[in-house]
Each structure stands twice: as structure tokens, then as C-alpha cells.
Design a protein that fits this description.
- The chain has about 170 residues and is α+β, with helices and mostly antiparallel strands.
- It has one domain: Jelly Rolls (Sandwich).
- Helix content is about 15%, strand content about 35%.
- A 4-stranded antiparallel beta sheet has the order 1-7-2-5.
- The longest helix has 8 residues.
- The chain is globular and about 45 Å long.
- The N and C termini lie far apart (about 35 Å).
- About 25% of the residues are buried.
- The N terminus is likely disordered.
């Protein structure tokens, strides 16, 4: 599999992600891919509602798209603006894109074979937004690409200076 973090913007553009979010974020040059990873599930017994992003003014987004044929066994539950819980069914060749305050969960279900979703997290190329973005990505991935293009570690393996600079424990 190609490392999506190293793809030139022109190749990522074929996915349509930069064009979809550009009107909603602050960008100097280009939409920046922060991380790409796989979400693998074979069972979900109870919903775990959470948000990926809060209070960022949509300077960061998440895209989830299925890469296994059995993804219909696992949908996405989410809370509508009205407060109702709705259901999104993953479809091959499509993805769901969301930003701030999108409360969601894997839909309970089970599969004999693991279900694989490709997840992209991306957003602004402006470093002034990075401390708030990093604080929310800190426990989701082990390494991220900052808006300025540098790669840094996250989580417990992050250097102490990064943890103290960007996180208020």
C-alpha cells in the first residue's frame, strides 16, 4: 500500500478531499494530511459515542471509507443536529467526512472476517492551530504530520517537550 502521507497533493486531490474542505478551513497553501491509518473491527457490542474534533472551528477533519467488501456489516451511528441518532451505511467507493462536534460510534454488529476502514485526518496548514489539533490527535495515532510538514510522535512515546508544549494535563 502506498504511504498516503507522502503522496503529492495532486494525487490526494483525485480523492476530492482538499476540494471538499477548502471552503471551510484556514489554508495558506494546501490542505495538509496529518495522519492516515486503518480502523479494523470484527465485533462491536455497544455503541461508544465520541467526537474526533471539538472546538477547532473545523480546522481539522476526518474521512472514513471502507476498504473491505464486508463493511456493510458495520455502519456508523451519529447524532443529528436535532438530537436524533441516525445510521450511515458504509458503501464501497464512498466515504463520510466530518469535522467539529460530530458525535459518532461504530454501529454494533459482528463479522466473521475483519472489517477494514481507511481513516484520514487532515486540515489546515497553519501552525497557529496546531496545539489544539495535536492535543486531540495525541491518543489516536502514534505519529502525525504537522501543518508545516514535519513528522512528530504522539502519545506516550512523544518527547516530553512536545507533551508539555501542546498538552495541558
Amino acid at each position: 500500500m502506498t504511504n498516503l502521507l507522502s503522496l503529492p497533493l495532486s494525487q490526494r486531490s483525485r480523492l476530492g478531499i482538499p476540494d471538499q474542505v477548502a471552503p471551510f478551513i484556514s489554508v495558506d497553501r494546501e490542505v495538509r494530511l496529518f495522519a492516515g491509518f486503518l480502523v479494523i473491527r470484527s465485533r462491536c457490542s455497544d455503541p461508544y459515542f465520541h467526537t474526533d474534533w471539538m472546538g477547532l472551528n473545523n480546522e481539522a477533519f476526518t474521512v472514513l471509507t471502507p476498504i473491505s467488501d464486508n463493511a456493510r456489516n458495520f455502519g456508523l451511528l451519529y447524532r443529528k443536529a436535532t438530537g436524533e441518532i441516525a445510521d450511515y451505511e458504509y458503501r464501497s467507493g464512498e466515504g463520510i467526512l466530518f469535522g467539529d462536534n460530530f458525535l459518532h460510534s461504530t454501529k454494533p454488529g459482528a463479522s466473521d472476517e475483519p472489517v477494514a476502514l481507511l481513516c484520514f485526518q487532515f486540515g489546515t496548514d497553519r501552525m497557529e492551530h496546531w496545539p489544539a489539533i495535536y492535543a486531540q490527535m495525541y491518543r489516536q495515532v502514534t505519529q502525525v504530520r504537522r501543518p508545516d510538514g514535519r513528522f512528530v510522535r504522539t502519545g506516550v512515546r512523544a518527547p516530553e517537550e512536545l507533551r508539555s508544549q501542546y498538552l495541558s494535563e
